[in-house]
Design a protein that fits this description.
Elements (H helix, E strand, L loop, with lengths): L1 E5 L9 H12 L7 H4 L4 E7 L2 E11 L2 E9 L8 H14 L4 E7 L4 H9 L2 E11 L7 E8 L12 E5 L4 E5 L5 H5 L6 E6 L1 H8 L4 E9 L4 E8 L2 H8 L16
Bound molecules: coenzyme A.
Length: 255
Amino acid sequence: MNLTVYEPGTDLPPGMVAAVHELFRASYHRYHYLAEVASTGRIKVIATAHDRVCGYASASRTGKLYRLANLLVDLGSRGAGLGRRLERVRYDCVRDRGMSCYVSCTCEDSTSQVLKLDLGMRPVAVKIGYRADVVRPGERGSAVVFTDDAIEVAEPQDDSIVRNDALRRTRYVSADPKPEVLAGLPADDFAEVLTGSGGLRRMAGMPGFRLAGHEYDAVDAQWHYCFQACNAAYEEGMRQQPTIAVMPEQLDVGL
Ligand SMILES: CC(C)(COP(=O)(O)OP(=O)(O)OC[C@H]1O[C@@H](n2cnc3c(N)ncnc32)[C@H](O)[C@@H]1OP(=O)(O)O)[C@@H](O)C(=O)NCCC(=O)NCCS
């Protein structure tokens, strides 16, 4: 098994993009990040055996952090240590740059979460029902956010609402979340509110929301408190019994 690191700015060898796409298509019902494989802005670690791609992981810089993404080992190669090797190599690439990491880890099973813990990253948020229809149609997968960054919560400077139709997620960022905006968040899809210390007390007393933990906003490159709407997507995510191996430490929210 060979692991090759492709640094940002490097093109993959001919045929490699298609081979990595095939790896993802074989494991997922719908994978939204295929276009990232051809992007030259990322660190990519690719595992091959006998000219076949059997594992992939990438990382891309977003503000002050590197976001780890796309970790996948093909079904026939799992359980033999390849995932751990990919994680280690990718993590070392980022740490060698003197940077910290962020990752939103799926909860299909505990393997990926255990690997993040073993790298020394810690869980900082749990998002229930975060991923729709990725592994199987009708699935509402959940996620645990891990980081090795030192978190300092900042007040959002600007209000924004970002809706991602493909991923069926909405993010409302505000230092002072408005009840009328909260009431208008989607009832069926994942919805979250990022706020600072000022909005914390208001959100904590808001029926229909739960404190998910800390979340990093790539737009302002800051950490905020993250509240999740306890809507139909949340209920469905809970019903599907996510495997959550680790819970974030009790947040110092000063309520
Ligand atoms: C997560 C994933 C990449 C791990 O790859 P892998 O090659 O199977 O992982 P490894 O063989 O290195 O195993 C890592 C650890 O997971 C655990 N593990 C692996 N397979 C396991 C199994 N079948 N049953 C129980 N534990 C298992 C072991 O604790 C192992 O630790 P060890 O080194 O002490 O034995 C792979 O399962 C995968 O592609 N999953 C689907 C995609 C995914 O979840 N990606 C992560 C997105 S955040």
